[in-house]
Amino acid sequence: MNQEYSQKEENGKERKYQQLQLWLERAMALQTANILFEWDNETLAPKQAGACTAKVQGALALAYQELMTGEEIGKYLELCEQETELSEAEVAILREAKEERKELACIPPKEYRDYQELISESARIWAQARENQDFEAFAPTLEKIIQYQKKFSGYQAKKGQRLYDVMLDHYEKGFSIKKLDEFFQLLKKELVPFLHQIMESKVEILDDFLEGDYPQQEQKKLAEFIAEYVGFDFEKGVLAESAHPFTTNLHNRDVRMTTHYKKRMDSSLFSVIHETGHAIYELGVADELTQTLVGQGASMGMHESQSRFFENIIGRNEAFWEPIYPKLQEMFPKMLGNVSREEFVKAINKVQPGLIRTESDELTYSLHVLVRYELEKQLIEENLDVKELPELWADKYEEYLGVRPKNPAEGVLQDIHWAQGSFGYFPSYALGSAFAAQMAAYMKKNIDFEALLREGELGVIREVLRRHIHQFGKMRDSRRLLRDMTGEDFNPQYYVAYLKEKYGKLYQIEGRS
Amino acid sequence: MNQEYSQKEENGKERKYQQLQLWLERAMALQTANILFEWDNETLAPKQAGACTAKVQGALALAYQELMTGEEIGKYLELCEQETELSEAEVAILREAKEERKELACIPPKEYRDYQELISESARIWAQARENQDFEAFAPTLEKIIQYQKKFSGYQAKKGQRLYDVMLDHYEKGFSIKKLDEFFQLLKKELVPFLHQIMESKVEILDDFLEGDYPQQEQKKLAEFIAEYVGFDFEKGVLAESAHPFTTNLHNRDVRMTTHYKKRMDSSLFSVIHETGHAIYELGVADELTQTLVGQGASMGMHESQSRFFENIIGRNEAFWEPIYPKLQEMFPKMLGNVSREEFVKAINKVQPGLIRTESDELTYSLHVLVRYELEKQLIEENLDVKELPELWADKYEEYLGVRPKNPAEGVLQDIHWAQGSFGYFPSYALGSAFAAQMAAYMKKNIDFEALLREGELGVIREVLRRHIHQFGKMRDSRRLLRDMTGEDFNPQYYVAYLKEKYGKLYQIEGRS
Q1: How far away is chain A from the Cα of B58, in angstroms, using its nearest Cα?
Q2: Are B215 and B331 in contact (CB under 8 A)?
Q3: CA atoms of B473 and A275, how far apart (whole Å)
Q4: Which residues in chain B have their CB less than 8 angstroms from residue A114's CB?
Q5: Residue A254: which of B52, B234, B250 has the nearest Cβ?
Q6: Which H or E run includes B258?
Q7: Single pTM value for the model
Q8: Which of A209, A383, A480, B449 is such that its CA lies 20 to 30 A from the CA of B184?
Q9: Nearest CB to A46 within list B2, B37, B254
Q10: Record: contact A40-B45, CB cut-off 8 A
């Protein structure tokens, strides 16, 4: 049938895995091509390219799906069952291939196609609804997406498994509703009253100097400087611009991130540090794993842990700014010349409960996620009527954050996730912050973390993360990685303790532990 | 087998073509992906991405090859033989698919793979040899490439067909050795003595003001202005930078070109006009053809005709500069403020026989191509020993252009084409110029060409080209297009007449016709 591939078959048993590998390489190539198209669409493609390019991407996605669920890979996966001398990486690749196959194969093609059409349409409907502040216009589409999502999860569910658990499993293995309920309960119990204390604190933090005369050209130079300083390797990556910052990668020698330049200088600055965290993860994946099914970060939550580790635990730490704040003052003498490092670091840590998740500060961030977790759990598990979403959303914001959206654009319509069918994704944002805090607590026991920051020795910190987390890609799951690194299962107490310690100090809250 | 595709089959006879089309769309998607990778490699990809990305591209190319030569497309091609109501476009697509299949299938996979490895290695060897001015280091590789090329052409040759004719056919159908011998003989007979006359002319043209204070940022603005002025549509295209200017496209809504900025301002300026000519061609391909096997320009020569039409016949015409030269003076007041339009237009048309093809002027360009044509014909048809190339090359340059390379870097090693196995490609460069001259002669009979340029009405000229050439893509071959447009078969006399008229006037040569 296939001369290119079949001629290697004769070498017998030990070649079965290599044979499978050739087909998987092709599948990965199809996926990598679509990653490049997505990057290109967001950063460079001309305005009118859309429809024609979408056709190309659709054909590539279909080819991928057919290949992954096809006879050849099926045959070699079966043959590989008998292989005895597989490495850990190979075993993991087989596991991922089987899972991917199962997921793709269990949905009837017709339903999958209809769903894809719905999804490609829904982003437009959502954007329009958000622009018009009109939730009603989006509600029927959202309702359909939820029905499909529940149906598909039903196909995939193990016996007795709850549908929302199936969805959660896509983004973060080992974190079921039960585990997340505990996690978010803890956050609610500890952080909501803590936030009240902060809001009542008499400490006033000025941050008006973060907005003003920050020319884009200079912000760009700062972005390149800070990315490299934090650990981005421009020989293996690219920094570009797009409407919303993101990171993607073709493999571990080509990791790409974007930023956007706003009037407030900390917007791009911390976007870049955040995306650099994602990038460092992908750059650190072992060579033997890159370009395989386990060549990406372990999970959404683990990825977010790395971006938030660099953004918050490192980037919003005063010690981090000690060696480089003078450089910042030099770049923006008009704005920062008379602002001390202490004032600057306070400003970038100011707590300001708001309505928009992506603009929120380190402390309130997980409360935004809490709202989404509670609501999507209700949508999937309790058949919450989508029509009730805007009110419930507003109530929860008022309760947890003390602010109430005036319209759905700054409320339930702010995120694209549900319009893309990404239910179960949001919790990983909060988990990431908690993973990061647990890792930081471990690190601080073993290395002089603050001293390293003060000396600009970020390489040592990166190396700890690379050794414990990055190199393993998706070979091991996030709980295993966390346990192996810190010697302890996931423990959200570290996160709460970290936040209370840091912000208690900043806002002079009595009785912090 | 394939649920996605096979379910449409039942609708019977009239669906056979659509069925084929789905598979061809996938093949095109694979090719388009590789085009995007190539663009990305040349313009953006990080330094160290090379090897991993090459693996992806290799896998996509192999998938394309297997799909094109595979059972499904074979089956539907056969079934389509019986279809009676096919459009001209569909017939052309079937023709291209069959040809592509034949070409891909006739080479044994093992040989093809070995050859691909040789080729991917040879660019490096060639570049190294050129840097070291050491032809010996490249000769054995070149020899091997030639042997493969001859072998492959042998597989593809019709009975009695000469091997170099097979190669020529890849780039320009309908232009055999016989036809090209006539063409190049004419050029040699007419242009070599004419060049001697010019070199002896007492007319002195100054062009020193083309090099100097031309800041890159300003050159970039000029590039964008001139591209748009000539007819590039930035809503359907991108202009970027790369080491060597080129144009590529994903489809007719996404056409991309590059330039490079040098000390001499005319380098980027005319590169951009040249590439815009290529781009206008691809932007003008009909919607029903884009993203199919006939959705590209008709041939290398026809493509080059469009780029050279815009670069030379339009861009080096005084009338073209009449409306926009003041703008140029405004952009570069220090350099051009005191240079009259007449002086500027003379400078950009100065004849300067040199050693490097890509830097040559309009008149001597085809003599550079003549050297290559004669030599590659000898290599393929007369078993010329590659070792003799440097001397023969130098002799021919001395004879035709009056200059002799001092080393192989400025001689036989200057072009990458042979290192890529592209034998038969060079002639299309000269053919393109001749096509362009024939089209211009036709146009000048039907529209007031110079007046349109003076009024900045380039849209009218573009429309003539779109209507006669661009819209048809690769559906019709270049000779047919030329004949349909001009009412006459290819006739190189127009080219000779155009050059003698233009340069005879510029250099005040007596007795020009």
Answers
A1: 9
A2: no
A3: 43
A4: none
A5: B52
A6: strand B254-259
A7: 0.93
A8: B449
A9: B254
A10: no
Are A229 and A324 contacting, i.e. CB atoms less than 8 angstroms apart?
Answer: yes
Coil/strand/helix, residue A163: helix
Under DSSP, the state recorded for B295 is -
| Residue B275 a catalytic site member | yes
Q: Indicate the burial class of B208 (C-beta count within 10 angstroms; 0-12, 13-18, 19 or more).
A: exposed
Q: For chain B, report the end-to-end CA distance as a whole number of angstroms.
A: 69
Q: At what angle do helices B265-283 and B458-468 cross, to 10 degrees?
A: 50
Cβ atoms < 10 Å from Cβ of A407? 16
Structure tokens at A361: 């500060």
C-alpha angle with apex A389: A386 to A394, nearest 5 degrees? 175
Question: Residue A464 to residues A40, A232, A274, B446: CA-CA distances in angstroms?
Answer: 33, 16, 18, 75
pLDDT band at B9 (very low <50, low <70, confident <90, very high): very low
* Of A453, A449, A427, A425, nearest in space to A498 by CA: A449
Inter-chain touch A62–B235, beta carbons under 8 Å: no
Provide the token pair at B146.
């030639």
Q: Indicate the SS3 state at residue A248.
A: strand
Q: For residue A425, how far is the Cα from the chain centroid?
A: 9
C-alpha distance from residue B168 to each of B163, B300, B421, B447, B495 (Å)? 9, 11, 12, 34, 21
pLDDT per position as a tens digit, B39-57: 999 999 999 998 899 999 9
User: What ipTM does this complex have?
Assistant: 0.92
- Residues in chain B, overall count: 513
CA distance A488 to A438: 9
* pLDDT tens-digit series, residues B330-348: 999 999 999 999 999 999 9
The residues with which A402 forms a beta bridge, in sequence order, are: none
Q: Minimal CA–CA distance to B307: which of B427, B433, B219, B440?
A: B433
Which residues have CB under 8 Å from B38's CB, separation 6+?
B57, B248
Residue pairs spanning A and B at CB distance below 8 A: 136
Enumerate the H helices of B106-162 as residue ranges.
Answer: 109-131, 135-156
Identity of residue B78: E
User: SS3 of A251, please?
Assistant: strand
Which helix (H) or strand (E) segment holds residue A39: the answer is helix A16-43
Q: Would you state the pLDDT for residue A275?
A: 97
CB atoms A254 and B49 under 8 Å: yes
Percent of chain A with pLDDT over 70: 97
CA distance B510 to B513: 9
